[in-house]
Amino acid sequence: MMKSNNRKMSLVESLKALQSVRRENEVVITAMGTAREWMELGAQPLDWIFVPSSMGQATALGLGLALAQPQRKVI
After folding, report:
1. Which residue, among 13, 35, 18, 36, has the nearest Cα to 74 in the 3D structure?
2. Mean pLDDT of the chain
3. Of the four listed, 11, 38, 52, 53, which is most buried by Cβ atoms within 10 Å?
4. Is the pLDDT of residue 1 over 80?
5. How far apart are the C-alpha atoms of 18 and 51, rounded to whole Å?
6. How many Cα neighbours within 13 Å face the side chain of 16?
């Protein structure tokens, strides 16, 4: 019987996994807790790092960008 590893990925581990994916035309939106870590990993020009008092606003911003530019993926 194999033991399963129930350890969850940390925030930084998950952001590193996302950053390792080759991107061309995608926008990554970060807010509040992820913004600082994402900047430290090296954001790309299309990334939207939204920090000031933005709790809960990333989804609305992402939806607006996705509707305005349907040819672009928004993460």
Report:
1. 18
2. 81
3. 38
4. no
5. 19
6. 5
Which residue from 55, 8, 20, 13 is spatially nearest to 28, judged by alpha carbons? 20
For residues 29 and 51, the answer to whether their CB atoms sit within 8 Å is: no
Residue 33 pLDDT exceeds 60: yes
Q: What is the pTM of this model?
A: 0.65
Cα separation values, 34 from 1, 6, 41, 43, 66, Å: 37, 23, 11, 12, 20
Structure tokens that stand for 46 in this block: 């299309």
Residue 53: pLDDT over 80: no
Q: Are the CB atoms for 74 and 25 separated by under 8 Å?
A: no
CB 14 within 8 A of CB 33: no
> Is the separation of the CB atoms in 75 and 27 below 8 Å?
yes
